[in-house]
Amino acid sequence: ATPTAIMVGTGKGAQNGILFKNSTALEQLAQVKTVVLDKTGTITKGTPEVTTVLLQPGASQKRVLQLAASLEYYSDHPLATAVIEANEAQRVPVDDFTTHPGLGVTGQVDGQLVLVGNAQLMAQSQLDTSGLAVSQLTDQGNAVIYVAYAQQVLGVIGVMDPVKDDSRQAVAQLQQQGLKVVMLTGDNAQTARTIARQVGITDVISDVLPDGKAQAIAQLQQQQAVAMVGDGINDAPALVQAQVGVAIGNGTDVAVDCADVILMNSDLSSLVTARRLSQQTMTNIK
Ligand code: ADP
Ligand code: MG
């Protein structure tokens, strides 16, 4: 594109809360054929709330939330806030706090190992989760957080993060432009599929560890040019890998640093606008 076309496109972007960090991004967004969307904080609001706690026989909800919140206090994961807010008991001291990206968190309480995280985290310690009927939670779109203490799973916390008001419409508009829209998430398949259905996405890549996000993008790039939209630290490598990396709204600093385009409003319709600006920039010069 000519410098003038780039200037016009960049300027219109700024008026709409869309920051193109370089002219290549403005030019390439029109070329992408696949748009990959992170789930949490990108398609959903990123303000999860605890909806349900399922317990093993003999366990108490108060204790499950207390243990979970005591560890999550040290986590910066979006799910952590929900657990901390739902807890009404005094936090207990935690030793050896450790974050396991894409899995959960662990620590020691009263000399016992506490695990707070997904089914994979429990499976890594050979803990049995089969007594808990989580499908009723995941079918509704809840993320699930298991809580284990001293080699026993005590219960599971269901956390719901509602989709943004405009996500469904934005996905439809992208699809109408002939784009393939894919959801990419570290969350479990069932939860991911429910949220995907709510916004009209059929292509879902779930249970992806943070390292795996960039690999998933690379695989999609073998077919077509890809734009990736995300907000989290765990999205950063994927944003770098994609032809166009897009950070959304109140994205973490790392995501914003790694992206080529920043959507200052945290709604997905800005992506539709960004792509339209890119197309206008490219047709104006030919
Ligand atoms: P996403 O791709 O949706 O942003 P992440 O890769 O951050 O998800 O996390 C994937 C999954 O790992 C979460 O859905 C959750 O089950 C589990 N997990 C990660 N961190 C935590 C945490 N601090 N507490 C509980 N669960 C966690
Ligand atoms: Mg996210």
TrEMBL record:
It is found in: Cell membrane. It comes from the Bacteria. Belongs to the cation transport ATPase (P-type) (TC 3.A.3) family. Type IB subfamily. This is Copper-exporting P-type ATPase. The lineage of its organism: Bacteria, Bacillati, Bacillota, Bacilli, Lactobacillales. The chain holds residues 397 to 682 of 811 of the full protein.
